[in-house]
Write a structure and sequence with these properties.
There is one protein chain. This protein has two domains: 3-87, Homing Intron 3 (I-Ppo) Encoded Endonuclease, Chain A (Alpha-Beta Complex), CATH 3.90.75; 98-159, 2-Layer Sandwich (GCC-box Binding Domain). By secondary structure, it is α+β, with helices and mostly antiparallel strands. A three-stranded antiparallel β-sheet has the order 3-4-5. Strands 8-9-10 form a three-stranded antiparallel β-sheet, covered by helices on one side. Helices cover 19% and strands 28% of the residues.
Length: 182
């Protein structure tokens, strides 16, 4: 698999046809803006006499300005065409992983300590849709996934909706479906 070496020594994986088209350019590494990101491969391009920053994934896929390029495996230095998809902004937002500060570690599910219930909420085109309140985390996840499949049947589960944050919650003792290790 061809790799484009970035200015700081990191590498971006590309398909052979894209290596032929873009491998001769000088690429830099744009530092990540969020924790957990790996940053992007970028280069400076002169457009209409002005310097613009172009990302490798946008150069490869060449989407219209109103569309986004997402990385299916969430690795922003894996710029193989099989890992890239051109989508609208709403689909790109749904593709986000579980937030690192999520108390439940599950996308679309939160715990209400006052009632002892788990709430599932699905965001549909920027508006939160209440799915329901449930007695267990497992039921809330199942309801969220069922509703997500109803609204977005073409979006695979691998988008991160079931991916859990790999960290220990500070308040596991009060939650009925959270187990703590001794």
């Amino acid at each position: 698999m061809p790799e484009i070496v970035l200015s700081n020594g990191l590498v971006a994986r590309v398909d052979p046809v894209d290596f032929a088209a873009f491998g001769g350019h000088t690429w830099s590494h744009k530092k990540p803006t969020k924790p957990g990101d790996s940053g992007y491969a970028v280069r400076g391009v002169r457009i209409d006499g002005k310097m613009k920053v172009r990302s490798l994934q946008r150069e490869i896929m060449d989407p219209p300005p109103d569309l986004r390029v997402i990385f299916l495996n969430h690795d922003s230095l894996d710029c193989r065409r099989a890992n890239l998809r051109v989508v609208d902004i709403a689909t790109a937002n749904r593709h986000n992983r579980v937030r690192k500060d999520s108390e439940t570690g599950v996308k679309g599910v939160k715990y209400h300590p006052a009632s002892g219930s788990w709430q599932a909420v699905l965001t549909v085109y920027g508006k939160p849709q209440h799915v329901g309140c449930f007695g267990s985390k497992k039921d809330a996840i199942a309801a969220y996934e069922a509703e997500r499949r109803r609204y977005f049947p073409d979006q695979p589960t691998a988008s991160g909706s079931l991916r859990t944050v790999n960290r220990q919650s500070a308040d596991t003792r009060a939650r009925p479906d959270v187990t703590s290790s001794p």
